[in-house]
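[09:14] KT: can someone run the structure on this one? pasting the chain below
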Amino acid sequence: CEGDVPLTPISPHQGLLQDDEAVASVAKHPILINLRYPWKWSRRLILLVMLFLSNSICYADRTNISVAIISMATDLGWNDTDKGFVLSAFFYGYMATQIPGGILAGKFGPKPVLFIGVAIWSISTILTPVTSSTFAILLVCRVAMGLGEGVNYPCLHTFYGTWIPEEERSFSVAFVSSGAYFGTLVTLLISPSMTIIWGWQAIFYIFGALGLIWMLLAHFLTSSFPSSDPRISSSERDHLMHVIPRSPDSSFLKMPWKQMLTSGAFYAIIVAHFCHNYGWYIVIGWLPIYLKTLGFGLEQIGLISSIPYIAMVIFSNVGGYLASTLQNRFKLKTEISRKIIQTLAFVIPAASFGILWGFPGKFTGVAMMTIAMIGVSLSHSGFWVNMVDISPKHGGNIMGISNTLGSLAGVLGNTITGILLDKTAGNWDFVFLLMIGIYSVGALFYLKFAK
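[09:31] RB: done, structure tokens below
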């Protein structure tokens, strides 16, 4: 349709720089990271750091229950099926606000929408110990937390679409996305000690408060758009407005629906998102429990379960650098770069869980789980950034749709895992085999249809 954004990768400079003055402006624009003068940060780098922190807190609040639930289950008498219901309850709320989050971020800007989300998930985190004595009320609290966190990624993708040029997008998305692994890492490292010293309730009080502190800092340090940032330099603002024009018709209803719903590239993202989430959400929720079945104690679990996330923090950014290198140095098309990275992101964990299924044990468990999560972390330079590639203007809305459907993996994965463990007396073989099959389907589908 005329005026619709094409669902294929576009150059940020194509058709936007109409004269020599504009080209010169781009040539001398402030770079994202000034290595010669590192204290002269661009405004978009400050934004990325704040988004990294918000994503870290988001995942810290989401994953702290994976450690706390070991003590909670003992105190409250839960079995594995009960644990599965508690872990999956979050995703019912999480699914519900993905699309509204994208719509609202597009209409009002991503900053106010993200602020509301941070407030809701932080307060829900703080209330988790208060509601834990009544199972049904606890589930409602977890759903409410999901409602708040559901706007996170649609807002992040809207920020990418309004602040980040295409040539910086792989690095930027990988950096902010690595905040998820960093937040999870910190949570797993310190939560066991917090539980031992202050009790499992302290985990929720402390991490919940961090979100409220972030809101205070972000109020002064972030803006929804370069044009509304009072502290941005004129050269950076002019550059970003040249290469990332904001169109007035970026609303949810004005998306190119016919083109999108008949596009294989759109469905490649949806399928990849579901397959990625299935394994990732199981690891987030069940890794400490899995390590306990291998014979590790609570004090050891915090340190050992952090190892995969240390690797993810590193390799998520390595993936972003690799993707940028493939495009900028080796001149590969965006489509080819995304397919290479995403294939690795599925094949590596599938192979790792295959080895783990065939050769169980403490060393194998930790080593293969770490290698699997290295592969998973590469997805943020594959299908994840591909959402913005196919339509920068509607990146937040596409993320909302994709993450809504992808979050079904959180509901199904956590529920099925709990039931399988109960039915097989704690045997993880069927859990791993199902993950291998899902990763394999994701790799083949993305290779076939991604653009």
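[09:33] KT: thanks! The radius of gyration is 21 Å.
[09:34] RB: yep, looked fine to me
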